[in-house]
Amino acid sequence: MWGMTNSSDTSTPADVPAASTGVSDRNQLNPLFARSGEATDFPLNRLPGSESLPETAYQIVHDEAMLDGNSRLNLATFVGTWMDPHADRLYSESADKNMIDKDEYPQTAAIETRCWKMIASLWNAPDAERAIGTSTIGSSEACMLGGLALKRRWQQARRAAGKPTDKPNLVLSSAVQVCWEKFCNYWDVEPRFVPITDEHRCLDGSDLDKYVDENTIGVVAIMGVTYTGVYEPVAKIAAALDRIQESTGLDIPIHVDGASGGMIAPFLQPDLSWDFRVPRVASISTSAHKYGLVYPGLGWVVWRTVDDLPSDLVFDVTYLGGHMPSFALNFSRPGAQVLLQYYLFLRLGFDGYYRVQKASQDVAVYLAGEIAKMPAFDLWNDGTDIPVFAWQLTKGHTDKWNLYHLSERLRLKGWLIPAYPMPDDLTDIVVQRIVVRNGLSRSLAESLVQDIADAVAYLDALEAPMPTEGLTSGFTH
């Protein structure tokens, strides 16, 4: 094996020109890892001319991946970055399962059904056996399926009444996640954004009558706004829609985007009415790979009853000799994450999920409290909804630096904490946000507080303003 020569020669044929990129287009192999007879570099943007040893290919990929940030210190992402060794083992054993092939993998299909029924019960569906749901590739697909069902139900009702169906609209907060903008773009639905303001920091039902009409397919309520982590008051939004129905006859359903809060509120705020206990809620989606604690990418969407999902959106497909229902934007997709979700449901149960989520919330509240004590900052929220909070620079504190500079300064310590402007009508306000996930311990949080304090002290001591050229938003929603 180690004496392999010709078969492991990775040199590129002479008649294949190298692309000019302005940087090296070769991947140099550390001499310590070079094997006899192997070339010491690989082309970056072209398929190598021949094969290499698996150890060599592994080392190249492994070393490049080390250049990514430390996921444990990434406080920008909502996506889970850790599972226990038993989950890792289960993942490797089931990575080859195709979720769509329910005839070949009937047990995985049965486990998928068990999971969404558990979730339907967790979200207080009137009858979990009469609900309907599915797994998805993350909550973006789940949101789009929820939106499609809203649009189709509206179309069917309009056609039955002999009315046109060419101008559907969807009402949502200006702080909505970008997947909803994509939904409206891809499926020709007019988005009607209710702007957030200092007085109304999320969609709360205020002035909703100015945005809805007979062409409104639904209202999206967010349990855990991406910008700040706050819950939009679903019951209050529903009450506003109740009043609108009383005066206009318009019966407008709600889809709850519970990407984060859908797996937090049932455990930490069990008395909060946001789910199927609110009669106007037709469907709910969540990200299993966020506070569902599963590796990416997995989402779930559940409808209150089978009647809330139009049957003409569900396809009966023949695949590898079997018939199966299919309602998804993706066809072939991994089944492993579904098994991981089931593993966690069995492993943690309600009490275990409560303890994990409570630990994250405790750390978030601690961090928010410590940052609130610093004169440089004003909190936007305190982490008592989902374990996420944001803050802005205190007005008049300094003219020498901003939160983008603080973000860069913290990156020197390995912390990834984004700074970004708020959405339309509040774009002059820049905030920073911390997402606390399972794995950010109290001791790490204490280190972070010290690093923030040190960074602020350094920036406050500057004798001249920091340059602003090249500063960029930490991420795009």
From TrEMBL:
Xref: InterPro entries: Glutamate_decarboxylase (IPR010107), PyrdxlP-dep_de-COase (IPR002129), PyrdxlP-dep_Trfase (IPR015424), PyrdxlP-dep_Trfase_major (IPR015421)
Lyase recorded as keyword: yes
EC number: 4.1.1.15
Keyword field contains Nucleus: no
Region (Disordered), start-end ranges: 1-28
Listed Gene3D superfamilies: 3.90.1150.160, 4.10.280.50, Type I PLP-dependent aspartate aminotransferase-like (Major domain)
Enzyme class: lyase
Catalytic activity: L-glutamate + H(+) = 4-aminobutanoate + CO2
Cofactor: pyridoxal 5'-phosphate
Signal sequence bounds: none
Keywords: Decarboxylase, Lyase, Pyridoxal phosphate
Comp. bias intervals (Polar residues): 1-13
Stated family: Belongs to the group II decarboxylase family.
Protein's UniProt name: Glutamate decarboxylase
Organism name: Microbacterium aoyamense
